[in-house]
Amino acid sequence: MKKLLILPLLFLVFTLKASTIDTLGVFSRAMQREIPCVVISPDKAASTQHLPVVYLLHGYGGSHRTWIQAFPFIRELSDRYGMILVCPNGANSWYFDSPLDPSLRYETFITQELIPHIDRHYPTLTSRDGRAIMGLSMGGHGALYLTLRHPDLFGAAGSMSGGVDIRPFPLNWEIAKTLGDYATHPENWERNTVINLLHLVGCNVPALTIDCGTEDFFYEVNERLHRELLYRLIPHEYTTRPGAHNYKYWSVSLPRKLLFFHEFFTKSNTLYRK
Questions:
Q1: Which strand (E) or helix (H) includes residue 76?
Q2: CA 91, CA 132: separation in Å to the nearest integer?
Q3: Stretch 53-60: mean pLDDT, rounded?
Q4: Quick count: other Cβ atoms within 10 Å of Cβ 172?
Q5: DSSP H/E element including 251
């Protein structure tokens, strides 16, 4: 009886550790410094097959290590779905290029520097149909923001409890450090909030998945984004359920989001399906 119990445990440990984790510094010419990143590669990365990539953006106060520390099961998800997961450090930038501070250019870093670096050094699918981006909280804003502004790069995007309209929060989370205070620079806030960028959706409509807990302080702005997406006839998956702005809620959301991306990749990429 003991042997029967031990063998499944050994198999579980093996599957959890089949993926590999690299911690690397990617030099940003735009910001003239190295930006740390974590890359989770599934066991399939050792083969000749090219794999889809999901970029994961952390929230305010987080780092490139947030995803592996807060969600230890993420390695098993990488293996299960055969996808490379890239987790850059976005500091507290909200993933903007600051119009005021040239040392804060995280939009340029991710879209022009990080993606080419990952495509050069890992066996990736390099088209938009093989690339997705997702984030939580500040990172949920960042994922939708970058997708709307760069529709040629990302075929799918997701937000968990995202700050999808920053304007109701002019004094919070150092947004003013990047954009300037709202009273003095309202145009920066209007131009760089996700809910005001939906007009950029054209023929390359990304696959969108958005969720937020009903007790979350971002719940109302997510509800407004959902209504605006419906009004503009932009297809999207939107879900709410009881929950607050915390890792307990996101631990349930994360596997669902990666399953959404897996289904998108499977439908979009003939090579990936083989």
A1: helix 74-81
A2: 21
A3: 98
A4: 12
A5: helix 247-268
